[in-house]
Each structure stands twice: as structure tokens, then as C-alpha cells.
Queue: 3 jobs
Job 1
Amino acid sequence: MKPRWTAVYESINHLHRDESGQDLIEYAAVGALIGLASIMSLHGLSNKIDNAFNSIGSGLTNAI
């Protein structure tokens, strides 16, 4: 019978070599970067859209 510390060491060593969750972490990191980039681009785009609608509204008001 093996000593208990040997069984614990083998279990920890097996978990250390297991890479099954690595892909999930990489996909989550890529998804977070894509989300951050889209939020930043939409923030800049919202100012341009707001300015366009304001100029259209001012043009319509002045035309009346």
C-alpha cells in the first residue's frame, strides 16, 4: 500500500499535466478582447451618429 502523500502527489501531478481546460480559457480571453474592442468602437461611432442626427435635425428645423 502506498503512503498517503504519494497518492496526493500523484493526484496533483496528474492535475498539473491535464490541459483540457486550457482551450476554454483561451476562447474566453479572445471573446473578452473582441467584446472590449466592439464596445470601444461603438463608443466612438455613437458620437459620429449623434452629430449626424443633430445636423439633420437642425437642417430640417431651418428648412421649415
Job 2
Amino acid sequence: MTFSRSSDVEGTMIRTIEGQRVEGDLLVKPVLRGEEMALLETHFAAGTRTSMHAHRHESIIYVIRGRLRMTVGSEVHVLGPGDVCLNPRGVAHGIESIEDSLMVEVKSPAPDLDSFLGR
């Protein structure tokens, strides 16, 4: 597939990431997947937080709206619209949504999305 429309993609409520519990409402839409990367649209309700976790892939997040507190290793950043953050492979990270937020995330290499989404 070389084209996707977000409005046509069904989202999945995520309850765990890498076996760690998610507190709050986290909706992930796997918008498009290639051989080497995947693009996800992620919606956070205010107050939603992920536990610190690490992946076998790296990811770059770009905030569309809202504010997120991002912890990557020992660094903490508050991100708003237009801000970008890298989650290196194998480095523990976590996100807390300060307000309702939307971000897009590129993951590479592309993880098995069914497993990642808990399907």
C-alpha cells in the first residue's frame, strides 16, 4: 500500500506497551506501514501516561496538538505543537499527556503492528 487516509483507518485503544500498563486513554491508528518504517497517529486523553519502556526499534514523534511530557532516559522535555523528539532503540522512555494531545510517530524498523497494538 502506498496511500492511506487517516479517516479510513480504525484506531486501537492501547492498554499495555512492551508489557507495561498504560494509564488513561491512548488510541493508536497505524496509518501506513512500509518495509522499513511505520507511521502511527496517536491520540492521548489528558492525564494519560505510559510507564517507562524500551523498544527494539527507534521512533521519532512529532506533536500536532496538545502538550506532552516526554522522558527519554534521564532527559525530560515538555513538547507542544511542532516539537519533535527521538526515542533511540533500547532507551527507556515514557509519555504523559498534560492535555488532550495528538502526535504522529515514525517507527523504524517497522515493528509487527499486530503485536505492538496487542491484537
Job 3
Amino acid sequence: MNRETTKTLDYYLTLPYTIALTPEPDGGWFAEIPLLEGCITNGEDWNDALVMIEDAKRAWLMTALTLDIAIPEPDIVAE
């Protein structure tokens, strides 16, 4: 068993992934987690986009774990 398979969904959900929010020209907000390629969504306002990106992150991570795809982790700087 490799190290990657010992990490659970809950482990990845606790990591501090950077979320990028961008206002859409026609209204609404685009959200993405750049480190998780393809983890994107949008919402009617920035708060909605933040809620939606958390759902997208969960689905992205669950899929990656199921398919045994490598999951990048954010750099964590000790304070």
C-alpha cells in the first residue's frame, strides 16, 4: 500500500487549498482551486461561489481517491 492510499477524504478536506474568485462580466462569480486542475464552479454571488467550490472540491477529491489519481497538496508554511 502506498502512502497516498492511506490519506482519506477527511484529510484532504482539512488542507488549506487556495480558492480563486473572479467576478463574471455578466454577473455572478467564477471560483476555482488552481491546485486541483479542473476543480471549478460558479455562483450568483461570491458567497454562493464559495459554497459551490466546497462541493466541487469534495467531488473532485472523491473522484481522485476512487480512481487512484495523485492529489496535489498545498504547501503548508509553519508559523
